[in-house]
Amino acid sequence: VADTCPRCGFGDVHSDKCPQCGVVIPLFQASLDKMRRGPQAGASPFSGPPAPRVTTPAPAAAGPATPPAAATPRPAPPVTSGSRQAVFRGSGSGLFGIHAINALLVLATLGVYFFWAKVRVRNYLWSQSEFEGDRFAYHGTGRELIAGFAKAMLFFLLPVTLLNSTPELFDASPAVVAACRALVFILGIVFVPVAMVGARRYRLSRTSWRGIRFSLRAPTRRFVGLWIRGWLLTSLTLGLYYPWYVTSLQRFFTSNMWFGSERFAFDGRGRDLVWAWVGTLVLFVPTLGLSWFWFGARRQRYFAEHTRLAGARFRSTVTAPGLAWLTLSTWIGLLCTVGLAWPWLTVRATRRGFAWLSLDGPLALDSVTQQAQQVSATGEGLAGFFDADFGLT
Amino acid sequence: VRLDWDAAYLDGRMPVRRAAAVRITRSGLEVTLTETGARFFWPFREIRQTQGAHAGEQVRLERGGELSEALLVGDVGFLSAARATSPEAAHLHDPATRRFRLELTLAALTGAVALALAIYFVGIPAFAVVAAARVPVAWEERLGAAIVDHMAPPATRCEDPARQAKIDTIVAALTAKAAPQPYTFRVTIVNDSIVNAVAAPGGHIMVFRGLLERTESAEELAGVLAHEVEHVLHRHVTRAIFQQASTTVLMAALVGDVSGAVAFGLQGARALGDLQMSRAAEAEADREGMRLLEAAGIDPAGMISFFEKMSARDAGRSDAVTRYLRTHPTTGERIATLRALAAAVPKPERRLLPDDDWDAVKDACGETAAPPSRRR
After folding, report:
1. Does residue A143 sit in helix, strand or coil?
2. CA dist B207 → A178, A322, B188, B214 (Å)
3. What is the ipTM of this complex?
4. What are the residues whose beta carbons fall under 8 Å from the beta carbon of B140, sequence distance 6 or more?
5. Of A28, A30, A44, the CB nearest to B8
6. Counting CB atoms within 10 angstroms of each CB, which of A106, A129, B226, B235 has the fewest?
7. What pTM does this model have?
8. How far apart are the C-alpha atoms of A167 and A261, rounded to whole Å?
9. What is the pLDDT of residue B319?
10. How many CA atoms lie within 13 A of A361 on its CB side?
């Protein structure tokens, strides 16, 4: 007997699964039932302080998430509104314990355990991050990381080392040496953005919340293009192009980021940051460089305010003094303790970062479905060589 | 043992948390979704625990492949109950081990520090010796040539064939009686007022004008050269390169996923450590250099008198801090050691060069209208 899909309204469904939108109908029905019962029934039976939730009867304009009214005469799924914040529940001592055991095992295995150590740290950081009463989860493995590292070695470090040293060792002519140098330079220029995208793509694909994976879906070559063009124009304009450049990178990373089947949206424009940037440059020397934090805070607020997810909008309350103090005190703390305070400082910085960021307005996540992507860790391995930690925020 | 627990279920398809009741059985978990009454069974051997080993963390159990389903249980007592009920649940985290976590952390920390010290003081030097010995001499020569080109571009060299030949005679005399070795020694005189000599890998030795002008006899320069020749023969520089690279890796292992500021902070500590290592190499070069002089039949008094001159120059500037920070062992210590070594050596009757000749040689840069002295 043909049925109608409650989600997309497709009229010729013969099994549990809708052939058009791929939703599993009993599960979808169950979620609708649950939502109809209101937030209390669905609230977690155990999570600590309940996250503030306000249920509003969803207006018809709740976005594409609302099932077509014609297909389902039921009330539209409610969306939660209000201001939501992620909370970090980890502790410095917990992270330090992980770190101490990691250090021992890395040394004892002459470095091989490094990749598993990384996974353990990330697992802790992700697991202790909570949003709307649910923890994030990290799904990467040491085996993936070591494979990524090996591939990055093969495709990047090995060619670069060979190109760098072989011609000199074999007394090649200056022309050959110069050509090899140029090739290394080009490889370097190309591989930095490849690593940036690859690392982020990998980390997002191994991050989940409520069982749904994040993803970055855009071809790497587009980012390489953006990156090279941005650097060229920024140097040609003596830095003036920089606001457009950082905005274009942010647009790439944000508007190609997905939570399951839900895409993040970004509507920021580089020109909105131009005056802030010019001011920063003018004040750079008189403020001994501190104006950089002013621009950094302004940029973070602007990028947050122009990022949306499922009808809700991000908001950042970061201030320049706050950002400057957090950054400088973290550096000083690391320097003074030769890195030993790293776990506590990381926890502190994460807490502070979460406290600055919120997601405001109606958030309609209940129609989101899983859409995972195949991703390898090669970019992640590459990023290791550039000694760059391209965070997720 | 409590067998029934409240849980939440994530189906891995939609971001919806469903209330569920979990019952622990001997072979697995019976899960009942509260709302739909749907029931399913998770055998323990298919269950992975991905969260819930740390304080404040919920227990997260996953089942299935890449995109797994998950069960979340807030109370870690659930783990103890499961472990008590079924031997198949032994792979789940045991909350009872948590009270040893402080001890475990301290033990791991002690172990890591001990291991790091052992690697730093024993492992890395041993590795560097073995690795440096495996580097082909041809590679060392290229590397040394590159270093000389970088530190002393041709324009800054004093090239006087006649005087260079005299200096080369000294090197030949020094190395003639040494054990067979693969290096060809090349001495480059650099037109710079600093009082120093530097050995690069592969037989390249740079002597700066400042040093040359302060020598009073061929024997004094021979002493300096003997020291530098030993640096080359023992591959000290090549070894130092290996040591520095391995120390970088060691530090990366210690600080883990950190970069930037910490790496910078550790550079300081590392530089101090490198100095300590290089002091050992200097002492070795002194000792072996003295043997080289002895074998070549060159009066070791030259080496000692030159170091004494350096010592007089340094007088008043050698407090405890600079003593530790200086690359070379304090000249006082060195002279004492060298005197002790030289005492056993019979004084040779022959001189390398008459003093008048030496005055001409040590002026190698003089006629070439030396540019004003620069400090680097």
Report:
1. helix
2. 31, 54, 6, 12
3. 0.70
4. B201, B202, B203, B235, B238
5. A44
6. A129
7. 0.72
8. 50
9. 46
10. 13
